[in-house]
Amino acid sequence: MQPQKIGKMVSANNISLQFGKRVLFDEVNIKFHGENCFGLIGANGAGKSTFLKILSGEISPTSGNVVIEPGKRMAVLSQNHFEFDECTVLNTVIMGHSTLWKIMEEKDAIYAKADFDEKDGIRASELESEFAEMDGWNAESDAAALLSGLGIREADHYKQLKELEGNLKVRVLLAQALFGNPDILILDEPTNDLDLKTITWLEDFLLDFKNTVIVVSHDRHFLDTVCTSIADIDYGKIKLFTGNYTFWYESSQLALRQRASANKKAETKKAELQDFISRFSANASKSRQATSRKKLLEKINLDDIQASSRRYPAIIFNQSREAGDQILEVENLSASSDGVVLFKNLSFKINRGDKIAFLSDNSMATTALFQILAGERKADSGSFNYGQTISKAYLPNENAKYFETKDSLIDWLREYSENKDEVYVRGFLGKMLFTGEESLKSASVLSGGEKVRCMLSKMMLAEANLLIIDEPTNHLDLESIQAFNNALVDYKGTVFFTSHDHAFTQTVANRIIEIGLDNHLDKLMEYDDYIADSKIAVQRENLKSTHSHSLV
């Protein structure tokens, strides 16, 4: 079923979707319009991606319809990474504007005819007129600019898409969705496989974008930066909230606390809410969306703020023993993989309570370092020594080997617990939302997110005073990421971690170690300050380069 083309921008009217007895959506009514960016959020399985497919016409609802304003064009970030394999990179991007692409194809076919006649000439003239109206003469240069902004080298623009690596193909498909200034832009996890520089480029692009955006993302910093509203899927319904993700999260938590203290007077509740909104309005001045967001927050309806039904895992890292003053010393450590050097001569000393974000352009380098420090891999050379009081817990990036068993979750976790009591072990699974019969299912059939939550149960059991964490937010939903983030902020021990999650890194790390091939940086600072420092350094290099060219 293709969406009907009548109505206001794009709206979902009485949308219901049912699979057997399971109701995913129940008479959802929502409108997306204007120069707004709507962040679509919901727990894993709530139907975020499914709802985007309903909006785009890829999936038909059980009942209800989607309405698009006449003459408006919708673009969708493709999830099929092989559909355009035989096309050139540049053409793949231009295909994002299907009407323009069809005109280009028909025009080329007419000009290629050996028996070109008067009728062909008239049709070609009509097509040229339409082509010019759509700014077709700038199509290639516009597509090339998008590709360059997303980090695709000019040398790759004329290659077939199948010749590019997977992470670059994703960027080309993103450029395809952004191409041609669509009226409605639908993006499902657009920041996957993007580095910091490219995510910042995308944020700036969307902040300047003058049409409607609907986006699903697990990147909270991205949602906070680009979103003017949050569309929350809860109980089969979708409710709109003004503001970004953090505003929605903190306001829903406030409402939850207020609901828990039911005897609180209405005046006190209202004063709390107004104070909360005032503080958020003041903080909006730091945002790249400052003016528009502040205006939106000033119009917020206090009655709109409601408690969410979301369940957050209870992640609490305790230490069975506090660390002494000697934590870890690393001396001239080097590692390689299949003959390729990952890092060499890496040295640093850890202080008690350090929470260090390890950064590298090559994720294999940070993974190798963590495997060495966790005792799962040998270094090529160099040494490292832990203090006598140190106990470690490790969360690897790849965890498949831990789940090669048919044991139930209770028996799986019991293997890692000194206390074998079932009630005790169940308690740790319950904290990670494995309750009742959930805790009896086989460890071998878990989803990616469930495996990470089980590994977190294992880490909590260890009660270690040093945590080593490799890409902790992979596979987790926003609720688990938020709970994990809060747990590490509260944790009193030492943390080594690497993450592509901006908000996670900014709120946890007090020190940054950047691993290069030859040179390494070690800075006692927060992530945002490190980024600002890096940008200044790049600007200085550019100025030096410009100055030297001007002297030639």
Question: Mind sketching the topology for me?
Answer:
Layout: E1 10-19, E2 22-32, E3 37-41, H1 48-56, E4 63-68, E5 74-76, H2 89-94, H3 98-111, H4 118-133, H5 139-149, H6 166-178, E6 184-188, H7 196-208, E7 212-216, H8 220-226, E8 229-234, E9 237-242, H9 245-260, H10 266-283, H11 290-298, E10 328-337, E11 340-350, E12 355-359, H12 363-373, E13 381-386, E14 392-395, H13 409-414, H14 422-431, H15 448-462, E15 466-470, H16 478-490, E16 494-498, H17 502-508, E17 511-515, E18 520-523, H18 527-551
Parallel strand pairs: 3-7, 3-8, 5-6, 6-7, 12-16, 12-17, 14-15, 15-16
Antiparallel strand pairs: 1-2, 1-4, 8-9, 10-11, 10-13, 17-18
Helix pairs in contact: 3-4, 9-10, 10-11
Describe this structure in a few short sentences:
The protein is of the alpha/beta class. The chain is 40% helix and 20% strand.
Biggest sheet architecture? 6 strands, mixed
Strand line-up of the largest beta sheet = 5-6-7-3-8-9
- How much helical structure, as a percent, in the residues? 25-40%
Please tell me the overall pLDDT: 88
Uncertain residue segments:
545-552
* Count of individual beta strands: 18
Number of helices: 18
Question: What would you call the structural class?
Answer: alpha/beta
Coarse shape? globular
How far the N terminus sits from the C terminus, by CA atoms, comes to: 63 Å
Report strand %: 15-25%
Cα radius of gyration in angstroms: 26 Å
Can you describe what's shown?
The protein is an alpha/beta fold. The chain contains 18 helices and 18 strands. Strands 5-6-7-3-8-9 form a six-stranded mixed beta sheet, with helices on both faces. Strands 14-15-16-12-17-18 form a six-stranded mixed beta sheet, sandwiched between helices. Helix 3 (98-111) runs antiparallel to helix 4, helix 9 (245-260) runs antiparallel to helix 10 and helix 10 runs antiparallel to helix 11. It is globular. The relative contact order is 0.09. Residues 545-552 have low confidence and may be disordered.
